[in-house]
Write a structure and sequence with these properties.
single chain, Arc Repressor Mutant, subunit A, about 10% strand, mainly alpha, 2 domains
């Protein structure tokens, strides 16, 4: 996904400052595409130079001025053009899968700790998906008036929940396999360390 197009989509709902965009990003798109505040500001500057956005400064009494970005007609056309393009294949980069791939070089207890940490992270993520994100969708639809968009946001949420459930199920299976491996290793060590009984002549 292109960060400029994600930002165009958010600004298309309503004009926003860079800070507001980051906050919105963290509550929605962040679950499947991350971006730092410096990246967002750099991208906004590039988009303004391309004519996709306009920048206006709103002065506030006793507070710093607000730099508000608004989408232009050219920006809307670019956003719609991007939406119509064939989807790009997702590039998978998951550091924990690299560790799992080379898991033979860890002892079973280390490997199990790695899986449990991943399990806990997805348990926490699942809690956010089930409790927090639906409320965010409702609030943002009310704030922007984009009620017809909310079901589409819900589809991305449903995808995230299914992925999280799949990971949790996989963790359960992996931990059982690791437990079986630990028992097998324990039996082998016990067999090797125990002295052989001599047969009576």
């Amino acid at each position: 996904m292109s960060l400029p197009h994600a930002l165009l989509g958010l600004i298309n709902y309503q004009p926003k400052t860079g800070y507001e965009l980051k906050a919105t990003f963290d509550q929605s798109i962040h679950f499947f595409w991350n971006a730092t505040l410096p990246q967002i500001y750099r991208t906004l500057n590039q988009m303004e130079k391309k004519g996709w956005l306009t920048l206006s400064v709103e002065h506030q009494n006793g507070k710093p001025s607000r730099k508000v970005y608004q989408i232009t007609k050219s920006g809307q056309e670019e956003f719609k053009h991007w939406l119509a393009e064939p989807p790009e294949m997702a590039e998978i980069r998951n550091p924990i899968l690299i560790k799992i791939f080379f898991g033979h070089h860890m002892n079973p207890s280390q490997f199990a700790a790695l899986i449990r940490a991943w399990q806990e992270a997805h348990t926490s993520l699942m809690k956010k998906y089930e409790q927090d994100v639906p409320q965010v969708i409702t609030r943002y639809a009310q704030a922007t008036g984009a009620f017809e968009d909310a079901p589409y946001w819900g589809l991305t949420l449903d995808y995230g929940k299914k992925i999280a459930r799949m990971v949790l199920e996989w963790c359960d299976v992996a931990l059982k396999q690791i437990e079986a491996m630990e028992k097998k290793i324990h039996v082998q060590k016990k067999t090797i360390s125990s002295p052989k009984k001599r047969r009576k002549g």
